[in-house]
Design a protein that fits this description.
- By secondary structure, the protein is α/β, with parallel strands linked by helices.
- It has one domain: Isochorismatase-like (Rossmann fold, 3-Layer(aba) Sandwich).
- It has eight helices and six strands.
- A six-stranded parallel beta sheet has the order 3-2-1-4-5-6, with helices on both faces.
Length: 197
């Protein structure tokens, strides 16, 4: 184990599966392998006793009215009434079904924290370390890394279980930007980092 990738205490760690929804995954050319990797990470987390948390972006009717035109990324979503919280395409992908003990939050902004009670749920479980997987790298992953770093979490990003509609952007972010605040690892790295009792 390298000093760049310190050990992960499963009792104080959460795996965040972010925006793994049909409507979001549909922007990728091939998302089957991504789902396989995310599913593998979830299995590893459950076996180790790591908390699994799901974050999805979806809007109730009243949420659309709260999105200002100034929000360049989400104003169009609000105008078109896309990603309605009851629509099948806004649900967590069926291959990654949450369990009753998991954390599940719904957001109306890009990052995982700003419009959810995620941090309180993490604090209630004593979580200090986050392992992130999400779509897209330039969206939810980047925003959540930035905010989690400001909140003083230890952060890991599963580079191979995250993706962007622009592969070049994904590469630049995982090679150059995210390592300033997070440890970049793969799903295959996880077992060797988790401390076992």
């Amino acid at each position: 184990m390298s000093p760049q990738n310190p050990a992960i205490d499963p009792q104080r760690t959460a795996l965040l599966i972010m925006d793994y929804q049909p409507a979001v995954l549909g922007s990728l050319d091939d998302h089957d392998q991504l789902l396989t990797l995310a599913s593998g990470a979830i299995d590893l987390a459950r076996q180790a006793g790591i908390t699994v948390a799901y974050v999805r972006v979806a809007f109730a009717d009243e949420d659309y009215e709260q999105v200002p035109e100034a929000n360049k990324m989400l104003a169009g979503v609000a105008r078109s009434r896309a990603l309605h919280h009851e629509a099948p395409e806004s649900q967590i992908h069926g291959r990654l079904e949450p369990q009753p003990c998991d954390i599940v939050v719904r957001k109306t902004h890009v990052g995982a924290f700003s419009t959810t009670d995620l941090e309180q749920q993490l604090k209630d479980r004593g979580i200090t370390t986050l392992v992130l997987a999400g779509v897209s790298t330039s969206g939810v992953v980047l925003s959540t890394v930035r905010e989690a770093a400001d909140r003083d979490y230890h952060i890991y990003v599963l580079a191979d279980a995250s993706a962007d509609h622009d592969p070049h952007v994904h590469t630049v972010l995982t090679d150059k930007v995210l390592p300033m605040q997070a440890h970049l690892i793969t799903v295959a790295d996880l077992p060797g980092l988790i401390v076992t009792a």
